[in-house]
Specification:
Largest sheet of chain A: 7 strands, mixed
Structural class of chain B: mainly beta
Order of helices and strands of chain B: EEEEEEEEE
Helix content of chain A: under 10%
Radius of gyration of chain B: 14 Å
Number of strands of chain B: 9
Shape of chain A: globular
Number of helices of chain B: 0
Largest sheet of chain B: 5 strands, mixed
Oligomer: heterodimer
Strand order of the largest sheet of chain B: 1-9-8-3-4
Structural class of chain A: mainly beta
Strand content of chain B: over 45%
Radius of gyration of chain A: 13 Å
């Protein structure tokens, strides 16, 4: 069983469209994250949620709206897609006390291509 | 976030030890040193982390300099499956739990050859 699963794995769409990426974790963790990896391979945190509450929001444009229906799911909705949104988006999860173990668990990524 | 400096790439032969260096001269006393790796087409994977003392786990060892301005990730016997980008990351230890985060740099691309 995949611990952190993301769908879709690949997404190709036109500029101006709205799209969503879903993430689910079956590890029983209470904190989830979205990271973005751009074409230069920099991996940057976008959001983190703990028990459905937004904790970290790293100055991401308002077009990006995370939604956490429960602590096992964190979805990312993107409005009015732009070329610069093309990237690989990674979902991750952890226990609230992850700083002791050092471990974030990442999904395999969702590659978004905006044409 | 305090910055880390790593070589862009390194090569190793299979079955030999690999020492991946990381400089973090501006590290503060409360920064933890984390190492993650990212295999091709996969998400990052935790390797090891430490604060002041050297650390060992089943994947690797972490050697931390006495002044903490540098550290070295040691893979004892590299295999082809260890070919990945290795990230050395400093995490602010004053932030606990949910407010804490990892800021990834560019990492070191490790190539392992037969």
């Amino acid at each position: 069983d995949t611990a952190v699963s993301q769908t879709p794995k690949y997404l190709v769409t036109q500029m101006g469209n709205d799209k969503s990426i879903k993430c689910e974790q079956n590890l029983g963790h209470d904190t989830m994250y979205w990271y973005k990896q751009d074409s230069k391979k920099f991996l940057k945190i976008m959001f983190s949620y703990n028990n459905k509450e937004l904790i970290i929001n790293e100055t991401v444009p308002n077009r990006f709206s995370p939604k956490s229906p429960d602590k096992a799911h964190l979805n990312l909705h993107i409005n009015s897609l732009e070329l610069g949104d093309s990237a690989v988006y990674f979902c991750a999860s952890s226990q609230r006390t992850w700083t002791a173990t050092g471990e974030l668990f990442f999904g395999e990524g969702s590659r978004l291509t905006v044409l | 976030d305090a910055k880390t400096t790593q070589p862009n790439s390194m090569e190793s032969n299979e079955e030999e030890p690999v020492h991946l260096p990381c400089n973090h001269s501006t590290i503060s006393g409360t920064d933890y040193i984390h190492w993650y790796r990212q295999l091709p087409s996969q998400g990052p994977e935790y390797v090891i982390h430490g604060l002041t003392s050297n650390v060992n786990n089943r994947m690797a060892s972490l050697a931390i300099a006495e002044d903490r301005k540098s550290s070295t990730l040691i893979l004892h016997r590299a295999t082809l499956r260890d070919a990945a980008v290795y990230y050395c990351i400093l995490r602010d230890g004053t932030l606990g739990g949910t407010a804490s985060k990892l800021t990834f740099g560019t990492g070191t691309r490790l190539q392992v050859t037969l």
